[in-house]
Amino acid sequence: MSPISADGPVLMPLAQSRQTAPRAWLRPRRPWRDPRVRALAWQALVIVLVGAAVAWVATQASANLRERNIASGFGYLDRASGFELARGPVPYSSRDTYARALALGVANTLRVSLLGIAIATVLGAAIGLARLSTIWIASAIAGSFVEIVRNTPLLLQLFVWYTLWQALPGPHDAIQLFPGAFACSRGLFLPVPAWHGGALVLDRPLLTGFDFHGGLSISPEFASLLAGLATYTAAFIGETVRGSILAVDRGQTEAAAALGLSRVQLLRLVVLPQAVRSMIPPLTSQFVNLAKNSSLGVAIGYPDLISVTNTTLNLTGQAVEAIAVAMAIYLAISVALSFMMQQLHDRCDWRAAGARIP
Amino acid sequence: MMSVPASWSEPVRRSPLLRDRANAAVTAVLGVGVLYFGARFAQWAVLSAIWRLPPGSTSAICRAARGEGACWAVVGERFRFILLGAYPAAQPWRPLVACGAIISLYAATAVRAWWRPWLAACWIAVPALAIVLLRGGIFGLPAVPTDVWGGLPLTLVLATVGFVAAIPPAAVLALGRRSPMPAIRILSASYIELVRGVPIITLLFMASIMFPRFVPQGLVVDKLVRAQIAVAMVAAAYLAEVIRAGLETIPSGQYEAATSLGLRFWPATILVVLPQAVRKMIPALVNTFIAFVKDTSLVAIIGVFDLLGAAKVVIVDPKWTGFGVEVYLFVAAIYFSLCFAVSRYSQRLERT
User: Fold this and answer.
1) What is the mean pLDDT of residues A228-238?
2) Contact between chains at A299 and B300 (C-beta distance less than 8 A)
3) Which of A36, B9, B145, B305 is most deeply buried (CB count within 10 A of its CB)?
4) Closest C-alpha among B334, B292, B342 to residue B310
5) Is the pTM value of this prediction over 0.90?
6) Which positions in chain B touch A334 (Cβ < 8 Å)?
7) Residue A193: predicted pLDDT
8) Do B209 and A313 touch (CB under 8 A)?
9) Please, are residues A202 and A180 in contact by the beta-carbon 8 Å criterion?
């Protein structure tokens, strides 16, 4: 008899019901009825199945690789790479090793991710506050921005940013943003302070020949990727900020208003300190998402970790190792970001800090 | 003068638009900014835009107007390729019916009274039907190889099939992660965290490059199928977390009551716990689905011509290079209308 009928559970007489976690003196004599034996058997079965699947895949892979004369192992990392990459934070040329190319890729990924996180946080906080603003037009602008950005794919947005950047005039007709700073289809060129002959001087970009030289040059790929990542993540962060502020208990704002605090004081002294702590876990996942999404830079030609991995696996044929290395690095970045945010979360515990809140 | 209808003016009057001088100043500055950029965009996108080219002409008129006006002629001329990819021109009804069926499925799912078992069956039957229709080879339909599939039907099929195929493994992973058996718990958690901790693009690369090396020689798996497997593998990890969150909302008393009635683990889970958890999961499932519709656009990177991939092909054509913004805006409008409608629906679900 089935214990469940169409109308719902049917109570069975106690004598028929089976004990699932019996006490020692009630434990069934047949071992396959013992829940502990069953649990062990299930786990053994799953481990054997997963192990067999992994072993089968590994045998196939090594047979296939032998047949195609593809080496295995990580020896390729020490060999000269032979491909060029755009100049970046790590000195590199085509005579350097694959490992060094990878280091440049990682540095580029970290550079765009960290800068993107900083910009997205500031922009996102502004958007979140604007959406809660009593000024109708400010909340309407922020609201439409969030809806447009969140409901279209990031990759599409990156293509749009990159296409727009490429549509800028060439170096000779560059747009001067402010004296010494130029934007053109070749990128963004900014003046930077530099030590020159013992004195601090402003290193300005100058148009010589067909391109700008000197100063700080930012490639169109980097600028587009940064703009795309920062605005996309800012829309999500804006929603997080808005949600966390709205989640602060109404009584808190009412009490603060009753004390005669102005709107700005109310936000700064009462609401934000309470909202920030609850914001940190969702912010962490947005930061990790941004770092992972920076991998889309490969589609617009930014020389990030994925781009280097892709070139490496095409040149060496060692796809398994190259992709495994990339995955391990991304995992490490995700874990490191989460760990840092966890530390921040613990420090933001105003109940534990106690004395800081009178 | 006509009076403004009350229903329109009410939110404006009720808002503290002009409550004090600072607000008024900010409103004025932002208002002027919005009007200025709005007018410039309208000038580019509508007033100075070129809507179609005279038959047989080149894109010279559009090139002359670049920067001044949009060239929507590119969308008009390549409309069909962007929407349907390289699918045989003689049979446009097949991809169109496939799209219509999948979008109707979404619309039917929005009706709460229809959340019955037959709707779940439809989520299996409709995508299967769409694939049969696109693929052909039976019922007298000429077979169409998958490498010419493209555009919107491909995006919808990848997202829907990936989502449906991921639900059973996701449920197993979610239960595994809550299991008291350590080996099963660790295996499930490792899979979920590994997939969620790396970019989706690495998993797509794995499917497109590594996968052929992991299977016996001679077994050729279609590129689209490989991309679909990767999408489903990713979906399984993300959905597992959604399902786990749904399971956590069910008090353990429900499971204990079911076992005390004599149900074993699987009957108790399937008949008692999951049906209650599913209702609580639906808003999160909808949000994950929106994310998946957007994320399937990444297959464009590994050379599958979904909606975004098809758009990229169009602007590689020498006739239309340089008109990327117009094509991308058109594709963005399609993604937006789909995702915005679904997200509005999910917000309504969360409120009720």
Assistant:
1) 94
2) yes
3) B305
4) B334
5) no
6) 197-198
7) 79
8) yes
9) yes
